[in-house]
Model the fold of this input.
Amino acid sequence: MREVAVVGFAEAPNVRHTDGTTNGVEMLVPIFREVFDQTGLAKHDIDFWCSGSSDYLAGRAFSFVSAVDAIGAFPPVMESHVEMDGAFALYEAWIKVLTGDADIALAYGFGKSSAGELPRVLALQLDPYVMAPLWPDSVSIAALQARLGLDNDLWTERGMAEVAARSRAAAVSNPRAQLSGEASVDDLLAAPYVADPLRAHDCAPITDGAAVVIIAAADRARELCQRPAWISGFEHRIDSGSFGARDLTTSPSAAAAWAAAGADSVEVAELHAPFTHQEIILRAALGLTESVRISPSGGALAGNPMFAAGLARIGHAARQISSGKADRTLGHATSGPALQQNLVCVMEAR
Amino acid sequence: MTTPPVAPLSAPLDISFDYTRSLGPVLTQFMTGLAQRQILGSRGADGRVYVPPAEYDPVTFAPPRELTPVGPGGTVLTWSWQPQPSEGQPLDRPFAWALIRLDGADTGLLHAVDAGTAADMHTGMRVRPRWVDSPAGHIKDIVCFEPVADGEPSDQAAPAPGDPVPVPDAGADPGMIITPVSLHYLHSASAEESRYLRGLREGKIIGQRCPACGKVYVPPRGACPVDGVPTTTDVELPDVGTVTTFCVVNVPFHGQRVPSPYVAASVLLDGADIAFQHLILGCEPDEVRMGMRVRAVWKPAEQWGTTSENIDHFEPTGEPDAPYDSYAHHL
Done:
């Protein structure tokens, strides 16, 4: 099998609201420039482009087609799109490189989450017959999952607040994070519920943002990057669409993806957990021990641009390797309600 | 000289439509049951009873042949509190979302519980469905669930769980459900589009030049589709141009403002590198041709806003046609 590595990553500032359009062009143009500056590549070097975004978020049809303007797609480029997080676009790009159809591929994801009413928009990702007609918002759905773990003594509200506090403290070192700073667990626990048993700190903020990752095959990767983050395992799995039939206190799909990817030990795991208790679920499903550094970027709780946050996790995990801070890392992305679908990308220095 | 930054234009964008779906045989039977105030589940190969029924067995993927009545009483498996219900949700006062395991079922059905306050909710509490007056075969036939006091029967009015109900053949008429969808956005024009729209309010047509390829776009763009960089330098364009291509619209459609037949055309303004679409009126449709010279007909100035509608339509100028070579590159 061809060796493939992450050689470049950039993300737009994670912010509550941008003035830009929902086609993402204003967020994408600067980060394309940034990742090309990093790698010394130009648009004509990219053999395959793949994006992740959603028209439901944009409130308009074919918003991803307008986003292609940011590429400058003339002469025509080979391009694809997924209505999922950009991490799944990266998976498609990785397959494209593995098959030899491309040597260098670029995946991007973007979301102007602030344009609509995000918790309502996300109700439309649910079963369309028996769930979506009730308009359960994304926070309420996550809260049902959180209480199951609390009732069964799998986690505590204090443990959840500790996740939030650690996330915000870590994000201090990430200039593109939306939420950062020191917060005491007691202060966090003194806040009222927004959706009992969830408090505001348990929920990722609403974030506008975008991310881009470039991957390259073998020799090209070594030319482009001093310490490429070689992909040793890249897998995704999904749990049942019957929401009420799932055991929501665990993540079988994350565990299955992890097992398929090799389940080797890592030093750093960037987890895409939009709710505090979901980080606890993921750590258990992936068997991550105390020695693993979790989301040094701050993770999704410090900024959760829809359709970009998962790709950014992989980018941050790769950056840990390229900067020499780690030799083996994991980037994780999730999609769907209450961690229904999970993707893992394991990377290493060679 | 620098001009202070001006926020791009934005406006509310409300989208609504009736999401209309046909149902497969299993959900058709489930909805038919609801219309009769009966809740049905499917028995899986793993022995569990799934409610709502699984369209395909979660283990064997075989479609279930019959459905099993469950409930009407149930037990709350988990819940969350909705202090501020939003549009479309089951109740307009604070309520709980819950996964409810109906008696005889093994999985949780998502619905609302009308408990009054969060203090009156607890995991394990007993609930029963509250039905609409005229059930029609929709998950909203159940208004919500309501708490049942200890010792109180679950629901006297509902039929007791009965015999299994056969699932209709796949070829039978499917049921339909209609779910109204209503979403609300704040739609933003790009900074470049806003420049164009604000120009129109002054009766000007402002394009912008791409700093890389030098092409003039109207409206200007957040990214030149050739170079991927925003257009920058303003270019004020005349309201005169050339029809590059056109079509005669004969088909009536919802919201049509001009009686058909009429002509929709691509008009290349003099000095622009990209054509934009507009109406050609002021002549018979069969007189419109490629190369025809046309001029904008503006609405009265007092009606101008930040909108492309300031130009009502284009009409022929009467000048000789533009030579093909002058617009061939823009087709």
Q: What stands out?
A: Residues 190-237 of chain B form one domain. Chain B has three domains: 15-181, 190-237, 238-331. The mean pLDDT of chain B is 92.
